[in-house]
Design the sequence.
């Protein structure tokens, strides 16, 4: 599975989807980690992350506190972003003057980034941020 396919799955399936517990969902998560150079044994990634259904039940303030506990040296914010069809809350951090909502992409959104090397995030923090922004997007629907 390619990184692009894994990201497409992330956009197609909501945070509470049983897809992520399926073998294909686990493959997508492991592909994200593998493509970024993380050498994770099977089941390690999922066991390190806070379950999506737990995150989905948290308030915005609780989500912020969760990210602050995972990545305490990074400033975390949630603000309302204008999407094409609606307003969506997004969690982000500031890197070199730019708001980063997806640590797997460059600030222009055209290039793949390694959140550990490029932004100094842990793999857990990067994947949790991606899950949180998926949850916030689902809430706006």
Sequence:
């Amino acid at each position: 599975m390619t990184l692009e396919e894994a990201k497409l799955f992330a956009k197609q399936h909501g945070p509470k989807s049983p897809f992520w517990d399926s073998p294909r969902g686990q493959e997508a998560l492991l592909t994200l980690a593998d493509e970024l150079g993380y050498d994770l044994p099977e089941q390690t990634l999922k066991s390190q992350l806070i379950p999506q259904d737990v995150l989905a039940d948290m308030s915005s303030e609780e989500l912020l506190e969760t990210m602050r506990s995972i990545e305490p040296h990074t400033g975390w914010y949630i603000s309302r972003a204008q999407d094409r069809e609606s307003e969506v809350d997004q969690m982000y951090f500031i890197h070199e003057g730019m708001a980063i909502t997806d640590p797997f992409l460059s600030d222009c959104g055209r290039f793949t980034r390694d959140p550990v090397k490029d932004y100094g995030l842990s793999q857990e923090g990067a994947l949790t941020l991606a899950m949180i922004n998926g949850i916030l997007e689902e809430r706006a629907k």
About this structure: The first strand starts at residue 77 and ends at 82. The helical segments are 3-12, 23-35, 44-48, 52-56, 60-70, 115-119, 123-140. Residues 89 and 102 are 13 Å apart (CA to CA). The longest helix spans residues 123-140.
